[in-house]
Design brief:
The chain is α/β, with parallel strands linked by helices. It has one domain (7-136, 171-217): Rossmann fold (3-Layer(aba) Sandwich), CATH 3.40.50.720. It is built from 8 helices and 6 strands, in the order βαβαβαβαβααβαα.
Length: 227
């Protein structure tokens, strides 16, 4: 009998999407190595799906410990990199400028990586969730201690709104994990996988706004070449 189990390395499995994905793929028979920053969490993760889940004491900021990954995929000419981005990687909101910047950077990096590795049979999928019921807006949220009244109606209002629905977001992390697993198992996985109706609606609004912007300024855009 041929063992068709995949091997996953998931960074950050103590909670949120990382934990949901780890549990879903392990219960489907795949092997998961999950990274944790606290050694006390390793044994608990090992027991999650015994024989399929293995905790690793690893902080991705320890760069000298993580050169294992892409060279191995290149050698085997196979692999699938899943990047957890956000709808914030495609559409900005007031109050989230630093978060938007990090996700936009991840989007650009990942899109280029997909083009660079396609001929090596290494796939890349950028996952862009909307509001999901994780700790993103709760205990994981960090807000600047300096509150500026000049931005109360924009950034302040948006942050208050995000904090108000923490724990009541419409997105189910388990269903999100199932969607990611479905994409990985597909013959032609998507470069981008948007998760949730709020994310899809938001991104579509952004695309409409871009198209209007381009159309409104098309004449100026085109009138920039040598005669």
């Amino acid at each position: 009998m041929i063992n068709t189990a995949k091997i996953w390395l998931i960074t950050g499995v103590s909670g949120g999407f990382g934990r949901a994905i780890a549990e879903e793929v392990a219960r489907n028979g795949d092997i998961v190595f999950g990274t944790l920053r606290k050694t006390a969490q390793i044994e608990e993760f090992n027991k999650l799906v015994p024989g399929n889940t293995f905790g690793l004491d690893l902080d991705v900021n320890d760069h000298h410990r993580i050169p294992l990954i892409l060279p191995t995929m290149r050698t085997h000419k196979s692999g699938h990199i899943i990047q957890i981005s956000s709808m914030a990687g495609l559409r900005s909101n007031p109050g989230l400028s630093l978060y938007n910047a990090s996700k936009y950077a991840l989007e650009g990096f990942s899109e280029a990586l997909a083009l660079e590795t396609e001929h090596l049979n290494i796939k890349v999928t950028i996952v862009e969730p909307g509001p999901f019921r994780t700790d993103w807006a709760g205990s994981s949220s960090v807000r600047s201690k300096k509150i500026m009244p000049e931005y109360a109606e924009t950034a302040g209002s948006r942050i208050d709104h995000i904090n108000s629905y923490s724990g009541n977001q419409p997105g189910d992390p388990v269903k999100g994990a199932k969607a990611i697993l479905k994409a990985v198992k597909s013959e032609h996985p998507p470069l981008r996988l948007i998760l949730g109706k709020p994310a899809l609606d938001g991104v579509r609004d952004k695309l409409k706004s871009l198209e209007k912007n381009f159309a409104d300024w098309e004449e100026v855009t085109l009138d920039t070449s040598f005669e």
